[in-house]
Design goal:
Elements: H1 8-17, H2 22-34, H3 38-60, H4 73-79, H5 88-105, H6 121-133, H7 137-157, H8 162-165, H9 171-185, H10 190-204, H11 220-240, H12 248-261, H13 278-289
């Protein structure tokens, strides 16, 4: 018998029917699935947050990747004193997200959220919010539970892997997870959480996975920064009352269909996109020639 797919829309309706927040619903479901207590789930989220924070600090220190291809950009951004085009939250989210990507490329410890290549988006957004909205660790832990639950639905209905669905499935999923967490933490309705998820995928649909030389560095790290901002954009729209014509589940399903249609060259094989630009190919030849 065909197993029924997980549904974010159903979870939202179930939470509304019980007059509880999606965060409360997701915490209960996570504890039930893991056969543990709510407090144990939150304790695990605390550990995850500690690793995320440490990875941001690692990146901001100016670390370089082993290949020498990337590193130091988050430090540059953090020290920049020029004209500000972005608001402070967006700027910090972008900076922190890139920092985690650089920590990952330097073989530092990170949290795959949902993957190593997309590991900067969620911590970038969460810690920028903590800085500017004075959220407590418990608030962030609750946001992580929501984000993880959204990621679980995406993984069940579609994919979280660039090799399967392109970068829309990695950085796109990370942005959707972060957007939903933000709406939840900011006191948005359960429906608005789903709206934010749907808006992210509508905005990022079709993003290819094209790592230069097959390394998770270019353009992956900077995409983490831009997708952190995408998450905040979607969350802001949802919180303001903007609705999505396409429901969250259908947006996730659309992402899967697009991923299935992407040619192999655009799914983490370094066979297309930025990976086959002249500069990328020249660098790869020199690097692997060593």
């Amino acid at each position: 018998m065909k197993k029924e797919k997980l549904s974010l829309e159903k979870w939202i309706k179930d939470a509304d029917a019980r007059n509880i927040t999606l965060a409360e619903f997701c915490l209960e479901e996570s504890a039930k699935e893991l056969n543990t207590a709510n407090i144990a789930v939150m304790a695990k989220m605390k550990e995850v947050l500690e690793v995320m924070h440490a990875s941001i600090e690692t990146g901001l220190s100016g670390v370089k990747s082993h290949s020498g291809l990337t590193g130091g950009d988050s430090k540059i951004l953090a020290e920049y004193k020029g004209n500000a085009l972005l608001g402070k939250i967006c700027y910090d989210a972008m900076t922190y997200a890139i920092a985690v990507g650089e920590a990952n490329a330097s073989m530092g410890r990170i949290v795959a959220a949902p993957t190593a290549g997309a590991s900067g988006v969620l911590p970038g957004v969460l810690f920028a919010l903590k800085k500017h909205h004075e959220f407590s660790d418990i608030d962030l832990e609750s946001g992580l539970v929501v984000a993880g639950s959204i990621g679980k639905v995406i993984g069940n209905r579609a994919s979280l892997a660039g090799a399967t669905g392109g970068c829309q499935a990695e950085c796109g999923s990370a942005a959707a997870m972060a957007a939903g967490a933000v709406v939840s933490m900011m006191g948005g309705t359960n429906k608005q959480v789903g709206t934010a998820v749907a808006i992210v995928f509508k905005n990022i649909l079709g993003l290819v996975c094209d790592p230069v030389a097959g390394l998770v560095e270019v353009p992956c790290i900077k995409r983490n920064g831009s997708c952190a901002v995408q998450a905040l954009v979607a969350a802001q729209m949802a919180l303001a009352g903007v609705e999505s014509f396409i429901p969250a589940d259908e947006a996730i399903d659309a992402m899967k269909r697009v991923g299935d249609q992407l040619p192999c060259a655009l799914r983490e094989t370094a066979g297309g996109g930025m990976a086959t630009s002249p500069t990328a190919l020249e660098w790869a030849e020199k690097y692997f020639g060593k």
